[in-house]
Protein: Aminoglycoside phosphotransferase family protein
Organism: Paenibacillus whitsoniae
Amino acid sequence: MGVGERIGRGNTADIYELGSKQVLKVFRDPKLLDLERNINSVIEELAVGAPTFYGTVETDGLTGLAYERILGPSMLEMLMGKPEKAVEYGRQLAELHAKLHSVKPVGRLESIKSRLAYMISGIRHVGFEPLREVIESCLSELPGGDHLCHGDFHPGNVLLSQGGPVIIDWMTAVCGPAQADAARTILILRHAVLPAELPEVAIQTFAQLRTILLQTYEDTYLELTGYSREELAKWELPLMAARLGESIPEKEQRTLLDLIQRRIN
């Protein structure tokens, strides 16, 4: 089975066709292949409706991870074309997330607190150092948990196939309180800056529907789970700090750092 055209490109990997029914995810940093392979072996056994995972494949000079190919646009792509569906998709996003959080991986994944602590420890952002001790103290006082957490759950990681929605990109999956994972989604929906290479009309469209999508997701998720906004808000500070360590646009970095500084001061 040979490698076909590149059909996707993310922050850490390129996605290629692999025959007609699979895709090959090729990482630019080989260390990430082992990390994702271990995590997806667990996700596959948990049977949460993720794309079927076929393991490591070496072909045509490339080494990557093979997955079932899911045909269909992402929820984000659908929102760009049909912004009037923001309420419908906000509800669906919350329903999918609440269902995901009903799964318990029984300690087979890294804890979200450990992952956040690692991310925060590596941040060398200008202006962050005076804030580090307060943020680390805040994280240490937060509770643990045993729910499956996706770690990067947003409309771009939900594919809308003919068979129903499919959640992809599980490399950040961890174990912990569901409230932390939901708070991460709210953080992304509220503050994420879309890539500058997108058409201006797409960026403007998302800016207009962002508030509706966010509010519908949050209201629906809290209604389904019985959690409170206060429980989710406790995770905002360490989540914002950890996101500074990701490959995000400078505009978003400035926004998050300003929010962190204001929260602490």
